[in-house]
Give the backbone structure.
Amino acid sequence: MINLIPLMIERVGIILISVFLFSQMKHFRKLIHNNQGTREKLLLVAIFGFLGVISNYTGIQIHSNTITESSWLIALEPDSAIANTRILGIAIGSLLGGPVVGIGIGFIAGIHRFFLGGFTAAACAFSAVLAGGAAGWLGMRYKQKAPINAPFAIVVGILMEIIQMGMILLMVKPFDPAWELVKVIGLPMITINGLGMLLFMLLIQNILREQERTKALQTSKAFYIADQTLPFFRQGLNAESCRAVAETMLSLTEADAIAITNTKSVLAHTGTGEDHHKPTAGFSTGLTKKVLQEGRVLTAKSREEIICTNPACPLRAAVVLPLKVYGQTVGTLKLYFTNPSDLTEVERELAEGLANLFSTQLELAQAEQQSRLLKNAEVKALQAQVHPHFLFNAINTISVLCRTNPERARKLLLELSQFFRSNLQGARQMVIPLEKEIEHVRAYLSLEQARFPDRYEVFFDIEPGLEKSLVPPFILQPLVENSIRHAFSGSKTKGEVRIEAFTDHTHMHIQVTDNGKGIPEEKLDKLGKETVSSKHGTGTALVNIRSRLEGMYTQASFTITSEENRGTAILIRLPLERKGGPAYYDESVYSG
């Protein structure tokens, strides 16, 4: 009996090696994850039925209670039996597939065992079918509560072997030879079967861990690629951004070429095939057209499936994925391979994950663009809020000076022209240089001070080097106008307005301070956050400025401090950006 154990361990090794080899198959891995349709169940029956047959052939012949070792059993003598690992393969397959699959596996292995002969042929054949059904039923019930684990699998394997020993004792006549056989093979087969189930579960757990590691690496890689391409996709689908995305993906994936399209043309193609897959109107592959029409992922593993119009195209496989914005297909992402075997399931899943991330990025880019358009509309609304009497008052002042001081009138006409030119040009930009905003303020002040030359005085204190820093348009002039119109109304003393701009290396601070009558405390908390009731205005301009700053920057602040009869200070803090940095500023707007 002891001598049988090493020989049985060898047979278990054959089964486990076979299972390991099968585990390298994509379909077998799906079976382990319980992704089983009719085709998969038939595959399980075939695989583990085959393993049962192999177990029969490689069994150890027991003749007159003596071990007779042979390499391959073809037929048994009438008074012989077999010690083998058949039940191990049946139990494994049954736990994976359920009772119907278990019965199918048991039937294949059992019939084969029956035709090998020997005095236990019928008992072993019947016990194979019974063990398959029982193990499958137990596994099905257990999986309703929890995944199958090693202790449960070991118990099932041992129990199925005990059932086989019981069937031999019940069915084989006379009883004495059967009992003598069970005494020789029973304990080794039960023990080795339990060990085999343990090793099998360890193998399965290793496969599952490997897949989890692969998915984790894949997810990490997808997020890294998404992070690297985010700045480009924020610009939307255009030739320049898509070219940068394609080059990034080509360096970080196993693909031989990357292409991105919109619904009408190829925007970028990088890698193999660049000579004829050029960014152009229309598409060089019919596969792209199908994806745009159907809105689903399509895979090709031959040049004919890619449907490339160039007969010398070296690309032999592709996965084409739709890029969607709010459910509508707006373009495609294409990964090409020169060797079809390189288009693995891992690469396909990575591509699908990236397509989903890219679609999300495009949705965010569109939302950001809509936000910018909204802010632009708010700028134009702010522009329309210029005091309605300002133009008429300026023209009246200039008309009077035409008689008394024509040169002064000419200069004011130029300032008025500059003021409204800045209004028109600023409304077409998201950010402008600080020097342009200051020019706008100076033009406004020239016109206002011509009317009230001795009411107030304005001081500028701009830190050197900040002139080229970028700021949203129309953030200074409304603040200065508020000071002039509200801070000094009814005051007999000369007012003072100070405009300062300074930096703390990472942020720019713009402050407008006056020494006017201040703001009542009950209005101060609401000012800039909501409109207020007042004879002199509603504070809409301040609300607009705050809302634009919050919409454009994540690190911007708008603070109002005031003390009655002492004055008011409004401080704007925003990230320091130099001319040429952001894509929003177009110098040509100001060059005319």
User: Anything to note?
Assistant: The first strand starts at residue 60 and ends at 63.
